[in-house]
Design goal:
The chain has 279 residues and is mostly helical. It contains 11 helices and no strands.
Length: 279
């Protein structure tokens, strides 16, 4: 929550008026939103799961290191697992699932993702986002014998240049989809994409966005994001990144105490709500 709430000012100022920012700044804002929504929603899920465990209930895992996925299909098996499971059970399987022809399977996938987009909101932005997500999964459907990594498997088990390139490419594709998810209008989304493409061709400076958001956020949030990525990468084989069973009790509780005070120190205490409360 600390990471998400401290990223919000930079994301909000960029997406509220994208016409005033160049491609580099909008690309940065899109990447920051990717981490904002992940941190916000995974925190929401962790709080729910932790509270449930205090009451004796075991909830399903909702995120499994999605940004370490090597394909869009793997990403959607690791992101918002509870909703993905619901759509699979109540939309995809009733349509016939994968036990049909390849063409019909592609149709089933696209219908499922389009309905998922409409579930988030009745606007062209969410419909396009759902269509892009479905199209990202289609290549796995039409490739016979393709190995599909599940959420229960360790992401990026073999670390090499190819793995890192696949992770980077998948993250980039997901971020393009987040543009439509976050933009206020379809026109804003198209403008943002146009300027990001221009930035790829002609690099631009970052100054404006960072300076305008400086009064509302702090550069330390980038350190927090880096720490988050490091911890998730280091513990990607475990269900929870802060499981330190091999540490002594004193070391574990010392680490938890330090994190507790960091949260209090860097926390945002304004009136904000979880992003997914609107859905």
């Amino acid at each position: 929550m600390v990471v998400a709430d401290n990223l919000a000012p930079m994301v909000d100022v960029a997406f509220s008026n994208p016409a005033t920012y160049n491609g580099a700044e909008l690309a940065l804002a899109t990447v920051l939103f990717a981490f904002q929504i992940y941190c916000d929603f995974s925190a929401y899920s962790d709080i729910a799961a932790g509270t449930a465990r205090l009451l004796g209930f075991e909830l399903m895992r909702n995120f499994a290191c999605p940004y370490f996925s090597q394909s869009p299909g793997e990403f959607w098996r690791r992101w918002h697992i509870s909703l993905s499971t619901w759509f699979k059970d109540y939309v995809y399987f009733p349509l016939g699932g994968a036990r049909v022809s390849t063409t019909r399977n592609v149709f089933n996938i696209m219908v499922t993702f389009l309905l998922s987009g409409l579930w988030h909101g009745a606007s062209w932005n969410f419909i396009i986002w759902g269509a892009m997500s479905g199209l990202g999964v289609v290549p796995e459907i039409i490739r016979p014998g393709h190995t599909r990594r599940t959420a229960a498997q360790m992401p990026a088990a073999e670390v090499n240049a190819t793995t890192l390139l696949r992770i980077g490419a998948t993250f980039s594709i997901v971020c393009l989809g987040w543009v439509f998810f976050r933009a206020n209008t379809l026109g804003d989304a198209m403008l943002i994409l146009k300027r990001i493409i221009g930035f790829v061709a002609y690099p631009q400076p970052l100054g404006g966005l960072l300076s305008k958001a400086h009064n509302r956020t702090d550069g330390r949030v980038f350190i927090a994001v880096a720490f988050l990525v490091f911890m998730e990468w280091r513990s990607r084989g475990h269900q929870h990144p802060l499981q330190f069973q091999h540490w002594s009790a004193a070391m574990r509780w010392s680490a938890y105490t330090v994190l507790f005070w960091v949260v209090l120190y860097l926390g945002s205490y304004g009136s904000s709500q979880f992003i997914y409360f609107q859905f």
